[in-house]
Amino acid sequence: APRLGLDPAAPHDALLAQLRRRANDGAQTRPEWGLAGNAAFIIAPRLRSQAANLEGRAFLHDYDARHDADGSVLETLMTAPMVVAHWINWQYHASTCDPARLGSGNKLLHNVVGGNLGVFEGNGGDLRIGLSRQSLHDGSRWVHEPLRLTVVIDAPQAAIDAVIGKHDTVRHLLDHGWLHLWRYTAGGLARHERGQWRPFTADSGLPP
């Protein structure tokens, strides 16, 4: 609500009515912010995050490793929604960091090309394939903070490593630093870095 200039303390029904009005108003260039601000993907029991205010910045997938003995569900999550979350994150990242080359400019001027090839901005000749400025900017400031996706998984280390070892796509994302991978441990968290798991606790500080 604050991003849209709405009072978050307003009655629920009043906020909902304003959001619905904006969403159905064709004159609104920013009816909603969609996925702006996305920064993390959590694969864990909902109990892990339900007490936290994630401010709409995290993709959540309720997952319980106790009911996934063969790791097949985890494999699906790491090779499908995790990869898609990375695609979404990186499109926002690229369109924010280099909007002139990797964004698509002003969506009020867009002309769609070939159905799904991209758009022209007004009468410009360059094919634009990124996100529009309205998806990233409120007219005075950027509303998306470009961060590489942080993935946090609650699953046995061996199960996570098995998926990484089996799928080149996942391994390449990690080896080349396209996303950050963490897992819950009995003592806190551990970060996957250069093929190794490095423990992290509140007292140890962030890993180098």
From TrEMBL:
Keywords: Cell membrane, Membrane, Metal-binding, Transport, Zinc
Pfam assignment, any one: DabA
Sample GO molecular function, one term: metal ion binding
Keyword field contains Cell membrane: yes
Keyword Zinc annotated: yes
Full protein name: DUF2309 family protein
